[in-house]
Design goal:
The protein has 360 residues and is an alpha/beta fold. It has a domain of 66 residues: 434 Repressor (Amino-terminal Domain). Helix content is 52%, strand content 9%. The strands form two sheets. Strands 1-4-5-3 form a four-stranded mixed beta sheet. The protein has a two-stranded parallel sheet with strand order 2-6. The longest helix has 24 residues. 38% of the residues are buried.
Length: 360
């Protein structure tokens, strides 16, 4: 049955029943489409293809698992202004996740169970400063020590959290649970694929904060997740060892050395140093005036030395290429899963990426 998927895709497209009837050249009436959405009837193959093309989804998506649903959706930067926008995001994420889980099934790979700390969600009841305790507890549970995390995506994937990148409108990232009928909820983090790598990395840590924190009524959940991200990526003990506990000045050369060490932007570093009291208000303001002057503090937030190799989500693509190499899927199906041409698929199969592409 396709009712729920069809209704979600139509809502995401912004089309009314009458509009959709017109877009598919009146192949069926709005009343018939309404029956499909209520699972009172099924379209024939020709109508199914027409509906999928009109809504910008695949027939496989419309015919997919109706019981797969997103729960507990959280956005970084609350810029979703309507139910339509939220439905568009949900439809896109569900489609991506369905392809991801399909490839795992084809390869016989069970999804890794979410390694949730027993104490989670960690309470942040009075102040965002409490998010630091949550970050320390998670690092301890995952045996991360106090060293910088070389590849945050890999850490999350190894502990049962799906990480995907896609072009997102209005938001930097989101966190949700995907649940299949009779199955355990699988946490998923999606980041904006257009963002530079260190911004993606911070967004992933921010969304992880939403997953493991419980903000009280007196605390802004977004600020708590941001504080958690800084504490996770830049543990206080190591930052104190590298920078000192109190600084009156610092040069850009030193900041960019720290940027490469921790894998974050110099702006995130500066904010973290302010949060820990390493930088006072005067130094913090002076540095951000310089960031503003250089254009780093506005979209696309591009700084020098922006990329960190291997940080972007890549597991889904690797699994698709593996499925093709092992004969589990055909070339056209692999290209469809990756949303690329067969020509581009063959290039990725046979040629090593150049350095610029590898870090992009």
């Amino acid at each position: 049955m396709i009712g729920r998927r069809l209704r979600l895709a139509r809502s995401a497209s912004g089309l009314s029943l009458r509009n959709l009837e017109s877009v598919i050249d009146n192949r069926v009436t709005a009343q018939a489409i309404s029956k499909y959405e209520r699972n009172e009837a099924m379209p024939g193959s020709g109508v199914l293809i027409a509906l999928a093309n009109a809504l910008g989804v695949t027939e496989d998506y419309l015919m997919g698992d109706e019981e797969m649903a997103l729960e507990g959706l959280e956005f970084r930067r609350q810029a979703i202004s309507s139910k339509r926008e939220e439905s568009q995001v949900k439809a896109k994420v569900l489609g991506m996740l369905e392809r991801y889980l399909l490839v795992e099934d084809l390869l016989g790979l069970p999804s890794v169970e979410w390694d949730k700390p027993r104490e989670a969600p960690f309470p942040v009841a009075v102040s965002v400063v409490e998010a630091d305790r949550g970050a320390r507890a998670l690092r301890a549970h995952w045996s991360l020590g106090i060293e910088p995390v070389p590849n945050l995506v890999q850490v999350l994937e190894n502990r049962g959290i799906k990480v995907l990148a896609s072009e997102l409108k209005a938001v930097d990232g989101l966190m949700a649970y995907v649940r299949k009928a009779g199955g355990h909820p699988v946490p998923v983090v999606v980041v904006d694929s257009k963002a530079c790598a260190e911004r993606q990395r911070f967004t992933i840590a921010h969304e992880l904060g939403h997953l493991v924190l419980s903000a009280g009524k007196r605390v802004d959940a977004e600020k708590a997740a941001t504080r958690f991200a800084g504490a996770l990526l830049m543990p206080a003990e190591m930052l104190w060892a590298e920078v000192g506990k109190r600084r009156r000045s610092i040069g850009l050369g030193e900041l960019f050395g720290l940027k490469l060490l921790f894998g974050v932007s110099v702006q995130a570093l500066t904010n973290r140093c302010r949060d820990l009291g390493i930088f006072g208000p005067t130094l913090h303001k002076r540095l951000f005036r310089e960031f503003d002057r250089r254009g780093w503090h506005k979209p696309p937030f591009q700084e020098p030395l922006p990329n960190f190799q291997g940080e972007r989500p890549q597991r889904f693509e690797r699994l698709c290429l593996r499925a093709l190499a092992e004969g589990a899927v055909s070339e056209p199906k692999a290209a469809e899963l990756l949303n690329i041409s067969v020509h581009e698929l063959n290039r990725r199969m046979e040629e090593p990426p150049d350095v610029e592409e590898a870090v992009r």
